[in-house]
TrEMBL record:
GO molecular function term, any single one: protein-containing complex binding
GO cellular component, as recorded: ciliary membrane; intracellular cyclic nucleotide activated cation channel complex
The name this protein goes by in its record: Cyclic nucleotide-gated channel alpha-4
Compositional bias annotation for Acidic residues: 544-554
Keyword Membrane belongs to the record: yes
Short name of any one Pfam family annotated for the protein: Ion_trans
Organism annotation: Colobus angolensis palliatus (Peters' Angolan colobus)
Bilayer-crossing regions: 34-54, 172-194, 244-265
Length: 575
C-alpha cells in the first residue's frame, strides 16, 4: 500500500523547472538601437558598392589582397544575415501602437519585397568559386540588393542630425563620388577589353614606365571619368564604336547628374533661406521701407544693428510661429523646458499651480532691446511686465543719465501694473524709467494674456493679488482707505447686479406667462372663427333668397325651419 502511494506520488510530482531562454527584444523602428544598427549596416553596403566593382575591373587589386577580401566579404555576409534577424525583431506601428508580437512581425516581414531582396542578396553564389576560382568577384554582385538599407540609414540621419543641410551636401558628394568611381572602373574594364594603348582614348599600355602601377591605373581612370562626366572636355576623341557608345552614355549621365546636382543644391539653399526666414525677421523689407520714407541715417543704422545682432547671436523673436505646427501639449512641454525656470523666478508667480505656469509660459514673448533704448518711461500706462533673460538694464532719472539701480538676468519689473490691485496709489502707470545698457533679452507678458489665463484659475488670481498687495505695502504705495472704498463699491455693484439678475428673472417669468396666455387666446379665437365658418357655410346667398320669394310662401316656411335647425346644430365635430 505504501509502495503504491510512493509510486503515485512520484508519478504526479511536477517536472523540474527548466531554464527559461531569453529571447531577443523587439526594436522600435524610431528608437536609438535601431538607428545604431542602420548606421552599422552602412559599412558593409558601402564596402560592396565601392570595393566589389573595383575588384571586378582591376584584376591586380583582386589578386594582390585575396585573403583580406575574403575576410571582408564574409564579414559583410555575416552582417547581412544579422540584419535579417534584426528585421524579424523590429516592430511596426498599428493604429499608432507599436506591435511587439514576433509572430505578427515575422508574417508581415516575409510578405514584403524587402524580405525577397534580403534573401536574394544572401544567395550563396560564392559556391561557384569551386569551379571558376576565387578571383571572380562578379559572382557577389547580388550583394548590391541590400542598398535600400543604406538609403534608409541616410534618411534617418537627415532627420536626426542638427545640420541637415550639411548632411544633404555630403550625401550628394558621396553619390557623385560613387558614380564617378563606377564609371572609372567601367572605363578601365573597357580599355582592357579593347586593348591597352591601341588608340589615344583607351588606357595607355601598362608596359610604359609608370603605367603598370595599380594606383596610377585607378587615378588615371578616375581622372578621365571626371573629365567626361563634368563635360569639361580635353579628352581624346573616340575611335571605335564601343568608345562612341561609352562616351554617349557618359554624356547622358552627365546631363542627368548636372540636373541632380543643381536641384540638390537649389533645395539646400532654399531650405537654408527658409530656415533663416522662419527664425529671423526679414530685414530687407524694413530697409527698403526706411529708404522709401527717407528715415534719418542714424535711426536706420540702429535698426540694421538690431537685425545684425539677432543673426550673429542667434536670437529668436518669433518662437510662437516656429512651434505652431507642434501639438498643443508638446508645444507646452518645449516651452516649459526652455522658459519655466525664468518664469518661476518671479516672486508674484511663486507657489502657483504648475498648470498655470505652463499656460503662462506659452504667452511669453521674447524681445530684444538695443543699447540706450528705453523699455518703459515714467508715467506710461503699464500693459505688460518684463523678465530679464540676459543683459543689463538701468533704472535712470528723467535726464537718462543718473542711474539708481541696475537690473540683471533673472530680475523682473512691471508685475504690479498688470494686476488690478485695489488701492494701488500709482494706478497702472509706470513709476520709473528703465533703459537698456547694452543688448538685453527680455520676456514680455501682457495684461490681456495674464487675464485670459487667470480667468480659468480664480484661486491663483486671488493668491497673486494678495502677493501684489504685500509688495505694495512694503513700498508704501497701497492706500488702505481707497482699497476699502473700492471693495465696498465692488460689493455694492455686485449686490446691484444680483438685484438686476433677480428682476430679469422675474421679467422672464412674467413674459413666459403672457406668452402662454397669448397662445391660449389665439387657439380659442381660431376655434371660434372655425365655428362661425361652419355656421355661415349653410346660409343661402341673396340670389337664392330672391328666387325663393318668387316661388311663393310654402317654400319660405320650410327653408326657414331648415335654417334654424342647421344653426342650432352648429358645425360638425371633428371625425
Amino acid at each position: 500500500m505504501s509502495q503504491d502511494t510512493k509510486v503515485k506520488t512520484t508519478e504526479s510530482s511536477p517536472p523540474a523547472p527548466s531554464k527559461t531562454r531569453k529571447s531577443l527584444p523587439v526594436l522600435d523602428p524610431s528608437g536609438d538601437y535601431y538607428y545604431l544598427w542602420l548606421n552599422t549596416m552602412v559599412f558593409p553596403v558601402m564596402y560592396n558598392l565601392i570595393i566589389l566593382v573595383c575588384r571586378t575591373c582591376f584584376p591586380d587589386l583582386q589578386h594582390g589582397y585575396l585573403v583580406a577580401w575574403l575576410v571582408l566579404d564574409y564579414t559583410s555576409d555575416l552582417l547581412y544575415l544579422l540584419d535579417i534577424v534584426v528585421r524579424f525583431h523590429t516592430g511596426f506601428l498599428e493604429q499608432g501602437i507599436l506591435v511587439v508580437d514576433k509572430g505578427r512581425i515575422s508574417s508581415r516581414y516575409v510578405r514584403t519585397w524587402s524580405f525577397l531582396l534580403d534573401l536574394a542578396s544572401l544567395m550563396p553564389t560564392d559556391v561557384v568559386y569551386l569551379r571558376l576560382g576565387p578571383h571572380t568577384p562578379t559572382l557577389r554582385l547580388n550583394r548590391f540588393l541590400r542598398a535600400p538599407r543604406l538609403f534608409e540609414a541616410f534618411d534617418r540621419t537627415e532627420t536626426r542630425t542638427a545640420y541637415p543641410n550639411a548632411f544633404r551636401i555630403a550625401k550628394l558628394m558621396l553619390y557623385i563620388f560613387v558614380v564617378i568611381h563606377w564609371n572609372s572602373c567601367l572605363y578601365f574594364a573597357l580599355s582592357r577589353y579593347l586593348g591597352f594603348g591601341r588608340d589615344a582614348w583607351v588606357y595607355p599600355d601598362p608596359a610604359r614606365p609608370g603605367f603598370e602601377r595599380l594606383r596610377r591605373q585607378y587615378l588615371y581612370s578616375f581622372y578621365f571619368s571626371t573629365l567626361i562626366l563634368t563635360t569639361v572636355g580635353d579628352t581624346p576623341p573616340p575611335a571605335r564604336e564601343e568608345e562612341y557608345l561609352f562616351m554617349v552614355g557618359d554624356f547622358l549621365l552627365a546631363v542627368m547628374g548636372f540636373a541632380t546636382i543643381m536641384g540638390g543644391m537649389s533645395s539646400v539653399i532654399y531650405n537654408m533661406n527658409t530656415a533663416d526666414a522662419a527664425f529671423y525677421p526679414d530685414h530687407g523689407l524694413v530697409k527698403k521701407y526706411m529708404k522709401l520714407q527717407h528715415v534719418n541715417r542714424k535711426l536706420e543704422q540702429r535698426v540694421i544693428d538690431w537685425y545684425q545682432h539677432l543673426q550673429i547671436n542667434k536670437k529668436i523673436t518669433n518662437e510662437i510661429a516656429i512651434l505652431q505646427h507642434l501639438p498643443e501639449r508638446l508645444r507646452a512641454e518645449v516651452a516649459v523646458s526652455v522658459h519655466l525656470s525664468t518664469l518661476s523666478q518671479v516672486q508674484i508667480f511663486q507657489n502657483c499651480e504648475a498648470s498655470l505656469l505652463e499656460e503662462l509660459v506659452l504667452k511669453l514673448q521674447p524681445q530684444t532691446y538695443s543699447p540706450g533704448e528705453y523699455v518703459c518711461r515714467k508715467g506710461d500706462i503699464g500693459r505688460e511686465m518684463y523678465i530679464v533673460r540676459e543683459g543689463q538694464l538701468a533704472v535712470v532719472a528723467d535726464d537718462g543719465i543718473t542711474q539708481y539701480a541696475v537690473l540683471g538676468a533673472g530680475l523682473y519689473f512691471g508685475e504690479i501694473s498688470i494686476i488690478n490691485i485695489k488701492g494701488n496709489m500709482s494706478g497702472n502707470r509706470r513709476t520709473a524709467n528703465i533703459k537698456s545698457i547694452g543688448y538685453s533679452d527680455l520676456f514680455c507678458l501682457s495684461k490681456e494674456d495674464l487675464r485670459e489665463v487667470l480667468s480659468e484659475y480664480p484661486q491663483a488670481q486671488t493668491i497673486m493679488e494678495e502677493k501684489g498687495r504685500e509688495i505694495l505695502l512694503k513700498m508704501n504705495k497701497l492706500d488702505m482707505n481707497a482699497e476699502a472704498a473700492e471693495i465696498a463699491l465692488q460689493e455694492a455693484t455686485e449686490s446691484r447686479l444680483q438685484g438686476l439678475d433677480q428682476q430679469l428673472d422675474d421679467l422672464q417669468t412674467k413674459f413666459a406667462r403672457l406668452l402662454a396666455e397669448l397662445e391660449s387666446s389665439a387657439l380659442k379665437i381660431a376655434y371660434r372663427v372655425e365655428r362661425l365658418e361652419w355656421q355661415t357655410r349653410e346660409w343661402p346667398m341673396p340670389e337664392d333668397l330672391a328666387e325663393a320669394d318668387d316661388e311663393g310662401e310654402p317654400g319660405e316656411g320650410t327653408s326657414k325651419d331648415e335654417e334654424g335647425r342647421a344653426m342650432q346644430e352648429g358645425p360638425p365635430g371633428p371625425e
